[in-house]
Design goal:
6-stranded antiparallel β-barrel; 11 helices; single chain; 7-stranded antiparallel β-sheet; globular; alpha+beta
């Protein structure tokens, strides 16, 4: 055999070995070359004083930078579902009074008298038997039973409730309880996959999938003057019976407690809302330790900042919340905050909406010191605020003032319109009436028009305007009657027709309490 032939056979052999190694490496990587391994366990998460035992380990998904193929994603869903469903329980409630439970996610029997039964969901968060659910699930309950996925059933007692966040903690007595791990709400991103686990329509241990649709949502379902809403929105199917159930990420970690849906039919229409896990954990720890939530307060009334206010205060961008009625003797005032400050950041985190500020402050306790950055007189200023609790004497005065303002808002809804004809502006979704002497004296204005009604879904409603306000200016035009208002609105509409990028109409209003507000109305 010649040297040339030997060299040729050697190269062929090396090539065959290389091809075989490549095939084996490809098979190890899996379809599309995406490496997928069983995730490793994360550190246990503990609530309460004693270390947990019998804890369900939750995988730390090592998702590769390249996209997972469908089969691999399917395995993740299966694995997470198998690990999470044992930690989500079926909550059955017997109530002696009028049916008041499951208002957020239905449940039937609304307004019935006598004993009623309803059902919801809960999540086991400690091997000591603590279960978190919604306040509206157990409200007015005379008897509560909790059923696990393995069919074990336990009577439950209410440890504590917090109507301001619609959360409650139950306690059951059992051994080897499966416990969920807690995720990080700050790590939740719009667009990421989540699973919802609960008991919709009494269909126990139901798992649905979707994505995070939005963060920091306020949908006005918590009927409490200090209600805190900064929900995670998801399109994972959530229905009556999901209340108090789990919303988890693809690590199997709890990121939210299912609380509400936006619907016109009473069932799933693609909009579900969950209390973020960090707020849940803060509330639950206090309920377990004290039976109540000991929350710190700034002691201020706040309003959103629109583009109009941003221009008014000289802000470089539209951000922050507008401080009004900084209560004397409470935390904000003692630290140096003033009326008409624009609060920009809390502990380095940007603030854009009032409900964001409320949810941030809700994570702190009385006595906690936080760094607050405000915009004042054209520049940023920093203050250290020591929060105060509701047991502070000044708190009662502040709360009383809030009650009075709330009553005034309710009275505004019943303010009779002036004795003049109401003209409808369908394009803007508003009805206006010229002022009479009584209305001028009532509001303390010399000119303007009365907002007689605001159409749901209209431009005025979307901008935040409501019935019972007096419009005094539209853009730079003083409004004296319905005719001048019509001309100003026509001019704003024409401006928008000529230039689609034109500024929206700037509407200045006066409330009965004397407050002057600005709204940008987009036609």
């Amino acid at each position: 055999m010649t040297d040339q032939r030997i060299r040729t056979l050697t190269w062929i052999g090396l090539l065959a070995v290389g091809l075989m190694a490549g095939i084996l490496f490809t098979l190890w990587l899996g379809p599309e070359g995406s490496a997928f391994e069983r995730p490793q366990s994360v550190e246990r998460v503990q609530l309460g004083a004693a270390p947990p035992s019998g804890y369900i380990t939750v995988p730390e998904s090592e998702v590769p930078t390249e996209y997972l193929d469908a089969l691999s994603l399917n395995e993740v869903f299966k694995d997470v579902s198998a690990r999470v469903t044992p930690t989500v329980v079926f909550v059955q409630v017997l109530s002696d009074g009028p049916q008041g439970i499951l208002q957020r996610l239905g449940g039937g029997g609304e307004g019935r008298r006598g004993p009623t039964q309803s059902a919801g969901s809960g999540v086991i968060i400690s091997d000591e038997g603590y279960v978190v659910t919604n306040f509206h699930v157990v409200e007015d309950a005379s008897e509560i039973w909790v059923t696990l996925q393995d069919k074990r059933q336990f009577p439950a007692r209410v440890v504590g409730t917090d109507p301001t966040t619609d959360l409650a903690v139950l306690e059951i007595s059992g051994e080897n309880l499966p416990v969920i791990a807690l995720g990080d709400a700050n790590a939740v991103s719009v667009g990421e996959w989540v699973l919802a686990v609960g008991n919709p329509f009494r269909l126990t241990s139901t798992v649905t999938a979707g994505i995070v649709s939005a963060l920091g949502r306020q949908v006005n379902v918590i009927n409490d003057q200090l209600g805190i809403e900064s929900f995670i929105q998801t399109d994972a199917a959530i229905n009556p019976g999901n209340s108090g159930g789990a919303v988890v990420n693809l690590r199997g970690e709890l990121v939210g407690i299912a609380t509400a849906i936006a619907t016109e039919t009473g069932s799933y229409e693609g909009y579900g809302f969950a209390v973020p896990v960090d707020l849940m954990e803060r509330v639950v720890r206090d309920l377990i330790l004290y039976g109540e939530v000991r929350r710190g307060y700034l002691g201020v009334t706040i309003l959103p900042v629109t583009a109009a206010e941003a221009r008014q205060f000289g802000l470089p961008t539209v951000q922050g919340v507008w401080l009004q009625n900084v209560q004397r003797g409470l935390a904000g005032a003692e630290a140096g905050l003033r009326d008409n400050d624009i609060l920009l950041r809390i502990e380095g985190k940007e603030v854009y909406e009032p409900n964001e500020l409320q949810s941030m402050i809700a994570l702190y306790s009385p006595g906690d010191r936080i760094e607050v950055v405000v915009w004042r007189a054209g520049q940023e200023e920093t203050f250290d605020v020591v929060l105060k609790g509701r047991d502070d004497p000044a708190y009662d005065s502040w709360l009383t003032g809030m009650d009075q303002r709330r009553q005034q808002q309710q009275q505004r809804r019943s303010i009779p319109p002036p004795n003049s004809e109401i003209q409808e502006f369908n394009a803007w979704g508003v009805g206006l009436a010229s002022l009479d002497v009584r209305t001028r004296e009532q509001f303390g204005v010399a000119h303007g028009v009365f907002i007689a009604f605001v159409t749901n879904g209209g431009a005025f409603e979307a901008a935040g305007l409501s019935r019972g306000m007096i419009i005094t200016h539209i853009d730079d035009t003083q409004i004296f009657n319905v005719e001048t208002a019509a001309a100003a609105l026509d001019a704003a509409a024409q401006r928008r027709d000529d230039d689609p990028d034109a500024e929206p109409a700037l509407v200045q209003v006066r409330r009965e309490d004397g407050a002057v507000l600005f709204f940008e109305v987009e036609l």
